[in-house]
Amino acid sequence: MSISGLNTLKKGQHYTAKELDSFISTTDAVLLSNNENQLFTDPEREYKVTHELDGFFEHSEEDAEKHFREKKAYVVEKA
Q1: What is each CA distance from 56 to 1, 63, 66, 67, in whole angstroms?
Q2: Domain extent for 24
Q3: 65, part of any domain
Q4: How many whole angstroms separate alpha carbon 64 and alpha carbon 37?
Q5: Is 9 inside a domain boundary?
Q6: How many domains does the structure of the chain reveal?
Q7: Interior CA angle at 77 toward 26 and 25, to 5°?
Q8: pLDDT single digits (tens) 12-52
Q9: CB atoms < 10 A from the CB of 30, how many?
């Protein structure tokens, strides 16, 4: 599966770590994984997109406030 030029992932679809790496390298998005920091260690491991979010809250160190960031975020789990 090639995702060259793809600007979104689809909930319920499976992607290899290699495909996710390519996607996140070219897209302004966030990937959240249940695989801790090992998401990209095995390029052929498959992940399923379980959630797609339009944004998230983030704490700012600058003003000590919480701000909503309008940025796509995807939750992926090992398939």
Answers
A1: 29, 17, 10, 8
A2: 14-78
A3: yes
A4: 27
A5: no
A6: 1
A7: 10
A8: 999 999 999 999 999 999 999 988 889 999 999 999 999 99
A9: 16
CA neighbours closer than 13 Å in the CB half-sphere of residue 75: 8
- Residue 49 phi/psi, 5-degree rounding, is -80, 115
Whether the CB-CB separation of 60 and 17 falls below 8 Å is answered with no
The structure's pTM equals 0.84
The count of residues in the chain is: 79
**What is the widest separation between alpha-carbon atoms in the chain?**
43
The C-alpha angle with vertex 66 and arms to 55 and 23, in degrees rounded to 5, equals: 30
Determine the residue type at 20: L
- The verdict on residue 31 lying in a domain is yes
- Is position 27 within any domain? yes
